[in-house]
Amino acid sequence: MADPMERVAEALERIAPAPLQAPNFEASTAYVWHVAPDALHPVSEVSRVDLSLLVGIERARDTLLQNTLQFARGFAANNALLWGARGMGKSSLVKAVHAAVLSEGLTLKIVELQREDLPSVGRLLNILRPSPHRFLLFCDDLSFSHDDQHYKSLKAVLDGGIEGRPENVLFYATSNRRHLMPRDMIENERSSAINPSEAVEEKVSLSDRFGLWLGFHPCSQDQYLEMINGYCAAYGLTPEPEQMRAEAIEWQATRGARSGRVAWQFFIDLAGRSGVQIQ
Questions:
Q1: Exposure winner among 77, 145, 171, 244, fewest CB in 10 A?
Q2: What is this structure's pTM?
Q3: 3-state helix/strand/coil string of the chain
Q4: Mean pLDDT throughout 133-157?
Q5: What is the per-residue pLDDT for 145?
Q6: Number of structural domains found in the chain
């Protein structure tokens, strides 16, 4: 029979486990942060496309790449918010830029953080802060609802409180919303508040804490077709141009929108019908 004190100690350990020890950051260039229990899981192969295949977002691409290179080289850089149209390559750009930085021979680790795990970000920063490596903390599809308090945790990354943001951590987020919360909720709070100017200032000003705002907008038909041609060239696919163009236009018409995601989905279908393996 186990000693009663041992059982008490084990119960306390389950309730309040010991702080997570930093993993071996030499094991990978990419990690995913999980909670309950806290853990940084290495990613053996990141799902991403080459930077050259991202069409129609050249200004955002060049700005984000330069900012990330500065950071990886040990210089000052800004946190970045990539906002705008769905499927236009926001998250793909972050991952592609990370790969481009690694190709320059620089060391940069990317850590993906889920929005619902933002309350744990302080614990994550405590693990990353003492490391000699530099980290790109990435949160995809970031947004907040009317009664969501997770945005307060985000300030630990953007402002850092009394300790300041760790010098070796940079934060990139993607969102469909420029101000990270629905416009109708912003207007509703303004119209019903005693002091409208202060009612939503804390939430709206959250996006102001990002030094870089990079907007993504729906692509033109020419850009959409250019994306598909780029995928075909990259994977050695040589369809008949006019037939492919007609099929691509019909494909986007059935979806009611043009975007990088729709272009990729059409290419996947085209490659499958052509018997070409996509790896």
A1: 145
A2: 0.82
A3: CCCHHHHHHHHHHHHCCCCCCCCCCCCCCEEEEECCCCEEEECCCCCCCCHHHCCCCHHHHHHHHHHHHHHHCCCCCCCEEEEECCCCCHHHHHHHHHHHHHHCCCCCEEEECCHHHHHHHHHHHHHHCCCCCCEEEEECCCCCCCCCCHHHHHHHHHCCCCCCCCCCEEEEEEECCCCCCCHHHHHHHHHHCCCHHHHCHHHHCCHHHCCEEEEECCCCHHHHHHHHHHHHHHCCCCCCHHHHHHHHHHHHHHHCCCCHHHHHHHHHHHHHHCCCCCC
A4: 77
A5: 65
A6: 2
